[in-house]
Amino acid sequence: MASSVTLERLQSLFLRELAVIVNKDRKIDGQMYFNITEVRITRDYSTATVYYTILSDEKEDIAKAEEILTKINKQVKYDLSQRVRKIRKIPELKFVFDETLAYGNKIEKILDQLSKEAK
Known about the structure:
Blueprint: H1 2-25, E1 35-41, E2 47-53, H2 59-83, E3 92-97, H3 100-118
Helix pairs in contact: 1-2
């Protein structure tokens, strides 16, 4: 039980720090803004899956975001290690586009369209 609390706290800490690192500390081409929505760390602390969204749900923009995050992954991990000293080894970072916001926007557009058609 105690380890899960520690894991949850570490996930929360990673979430806050990564949001700062990828948006303010990096000089990213195109000034793309990343919203870090969730961080899940495996129980063995080997991998941290970082879920993010961007201000666009266009496939080209998502591909560009993935390319940027892949390119800066090592530097982000290093910066995170400088900020988080509570653990000996920083887990590997795996960035994953969080589709829940895009899915919600798609449903909202469909509902708006149905509402307009019903009038």
